[in-house]
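Lab meeting notes turned into a lecture example. A postdoc, R.K., suggested we walk through two folding results consecutively so the class can see how the record format repeats. The first protein's sequence and structure tokens come next.
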Amino acid sequence: MPDTQKGNEQGALVGVISATGAILVVGLGLVFVFVLSVVSLGTVPDTQKSTVITAAFTVIGTVVGTYFGVRAGSAGKERVEAARDLEAMKVQELAAQVDAPAAQEAMDRATKRVVAERSASLPDLPTL
């Protein structure tokens, strides 16, 4: 089996284990909140039962919202990293086709642009 295919399979396995672990932790947390709520409803006076229910729904909403928020952010990060890697490959291929003097001139221009941009937008960053 080629190394890249083996690495992809290992990465997929780690992703499945990670997702399963996250779902398990969230599920156990929700079960724990449910059990605490049921026990609390049996022990608190009738005037405070709505407080227990409200607290339970708040915790459940927070946990579920956080879980899906982290998942969405993680997916967005993966898409951005994949796009960045693709652009880096394009730049490397283009740089391989350029002669040395033109490449040095382009690097000098890029360095000047970066220095000017950093000094204009974020003066507290160190210059190159």
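The second example is placed directly after the first for contrast:
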Amino acid sequence: MKMVIEHLKFNTDTKMWPIIGYPMGHSSAAYAWNTFLVANNVNEIMWPVEIPVGGLPDFMSAVKTLGLRHFSLTMPHKAAIIPLLDEVDPDSRFFNSVNLVKIDKDGKSHGMGFDGYGNLEALRQANVNVRGMNILVLGAGSIVGVILQHLARAGAEKATVINRSYENAKTLVDKVKSSLDMKLEVLPFSKENLDKAASECDLIEQCTPQGMFGYKGDWEYLGFIDKAKPETVVLETIVNPPATTLVKKALQRGLKVIFGIDMMVGNKVEAFRFALGIEISPDQMAAAKKFMYRYFKLED
């Protein structure tokens, strides 16, 4: 974490803000978080901490012992943390996904998820208005439900979900469709369905782990990107690596791409309001995004 440490200020009053997950060798969230913490004079430092599956009860005991004020979460703990918290935002509980926990002065824990906020903020920063859009969503994991919710609230007209497990995708859509003012369709995973959905959509949201650092699977077929309209936007939710095989294919086609970095930085806007009551400025957003782009060598 040398690049971050060079920018940090800390003393004996500094609190640690762990980001927990397993494994954590791929994690880069602390780079963005610490940029915002320093810019806003918050005397906390985010540090990645590996907590294996089953270790959350012991971790929560450590949180109380150490008097921590905040901690963030990534896979595989976003859902497993919920039964251990005192309060959880209703939407986060419904979609079974929490990104951040704050501890108040009485020791009460409050959890909330920000993937939907980050998704929309990344689109907004890229000047993409989803109102009236037809969207292809690839995947049906924990972040997809809340992303669909926020897309619907922003006025998207239709979303087609394609996932390798049709049953999982249908279960997700059946769960959310009654509460969303948006047409929803689930299609079985096939080249033909990918091609058809891609040719008709305005936005492709890539929400699978295919191509993610440390994940063995990757896209075997990307021909559907060739079927997309020239004006189609592609949003990748994977942060590391930012240029996944799907992103590279979209860039080769000349399509507008929104990186997972943009979504990760974007969710900090609402997360800072929730955790600290602080508004992140546009200049701070731009600085954090530039820092992350340089870290991943996306620009000089």
